[in-house]
Amino acid sequence: MNIYRKSFMDGLTIGLGYLPVAVAFGITAKPLLSAFETFLMSFMVFGGASQFLALQMLSASSSAAAIIIAVFVLNSRHFVMSFKINYDLKREPLLKKLLISSYVTDESFAVSASVEDERKDFANYFIIFITAYIFWVAFSVVGYMAGEIMSEEWVAASGIALYALFIALLVPAIRTHHKYLIVAVLGMVLHFVFTAMHFIPSGIAIILAMVLAALFGLILEKRGDKI
User: Fold this and answer.
1) Cys staple from 50: which of 71, 103, 143, 168, with CB 3.0 to 4.6 Å?
2) What pLDDT does residue 162 have?
3) For the residues of 81-147, what is the DSSP string, one character each?
4) For residue 45, what are the contacts with CB-CB under 8 A and spacing of at least 6?
5) C-beta atoms surrounding 84 within 10 Å
6) For the residues 138-150, what does the mean pLDDT come to?
7) 174/181 Cα distance (integer angstroms)
8) pLDDT tens digit string along 76-94?
């Protein structure tokens, strides 16, 4: 099989995996955003978990600054992934590296890390990443349009997709490293405590919980505790 076709099939596989989550995002976004805003968020952010988080914070009337900071913190892991991609493309111009890095997701990174050496180049990475990206953006809009013909009860129920997505991201990590369960529970407890403190805005509460739980996780990693 042609190497570019293999890369397209890899991207198609990722895109098909995105399909139900992207549709759920579009449906969930309908009460909060316009069709163009939904498209624009998927087009510019391209991060499933962070986009759902942004919707949750919008529904809680969080400030724009709080949403931006929370999304940045959640997506900060992509910096590490981009460093690895840039190493693979060390002979490519900076502009190409920046372009590829803007399309990095957990799934596309995992696929790119497992491809054969002959496909570790800009063209093949771009094919994989852009194919998955097109699926995410397109089906976000499809989901929004589906929300137009669905009852309000169905649209409201689609909000469960947020929790399903975070659980789907969390469970594999917990199965590999049990310490992540402690970090996740700590984050939930801290968020509950900070939210109960009515003088802390909801947007700031979630950022504080995320950062403090992440710092605790970093301490566990540094100490090398085996939990």
Assistant:
1) 71
2) 55
3) HHHHHHHHTTTS-HHHHHHHHTT--HHHHHHHHHS-GGG-SHHHHHHHHHHHHHHHHHHHHHHHHHH
4) 51, 54, 71
5) 13
6) 89
7) 6
8) 878 878 888 888 898 899 9
Pairwise CA distance, residues 59 & 38, whole Å: 14
For residues 153 and 29, give the distance between their C-alpha atoms in angstroms, rounded to a whole number: 14
Kindly list the domain boundaries of the chain, sorted by start residue. 3-158, 177-227
Q: List, in order, residues 6 or more apart from 16 with CB less than 8 Å away.
A: 135
CA–CA distance, 178 with 182 (Å, rounded to integer): 7
pLDDT for the residue numbered 70: 85
User: Is the predicted pLDDT of residue 227 greater than 50, yes or no?
Assistant: no
Whole-model pTM? 0.73
For residues 72 and 40, what is the distance between their CA atoms, to the nearest angstrom?
17
